[in-house]
Amino acid sequence: MKIEHAALYVNDLERAREFFVKYLGAKSNDGYQNPRTGFRSYFLSFGDGARLELMNKPELAELPKEPERAGYAHIAFSAGSKENVDTLTAKLKADGYTIVSAPRTTGDGYYESCIADIEGNRIEITV
């Protein structure tokens, strides 16, 4: 088995799509809309075949995104090298994104940083 895709509800579908395309190299489909329910989505594809579905529908509940809670914690993207982790993290910081943790080697040996996307979802950038 392999994971076919992961999905993420977002409030601002277009800005979220732009974020993943601009900073993380996603390729987006043309999108889908259900005119009856107002549901909209984009499938984003990444270099190794992984896909992320961004979804939106009217009247989404906005709950706090507490970092220490049960459930999905983050999405991790491989930048390919320590230098790429550093460069992308610096670009995101310069563009106003919150750096949750600066590039570093973690206790389990990963070199990574962690940022919050436009809606506060955590994104890890790793080698």
Provide a descriptive summary of the structure in words.
- With 127 residues, this protein is an alpha+beta fold.
- The chain has two domains: 1-58, 2,3-Dihydroxybiphenyl 1,2-Dioxygenase, domain 1; 73-127, 2,3-Dihydroxybiphenyl 1,2-Dioxygenase, domain 1 (Roll), CATH 3.10.180.10.
- Helix content is 20%, strand content 34%.
- The chain is built from two helices and nine strands; from the N terminus they run E-H-E-E-E-E-E-H-E-E-E.
- The protein has helices at residues 13-24, 82-94, and strands at 6-9, 27-28, 32-33, 40-45, 51-56, 75-78, 98-105, 111-116, 122-126.
- The strands form two sheets. Strands 1, 2, 3, 4 and 5 form a five-stranded mixed beta sheet that branches. It has a four-stranded mixed beta sheet with strand order 6-9-8-7, covered by helices on one side.
- Strand 3 and strand 4 form a beta hairpin.
- It is globular and about 50 Å long.
- The chain starts with 5 loop residues before the first strand and ends with a strand.
- The model has no long low-confidence stretch (mean pLDDT 94).
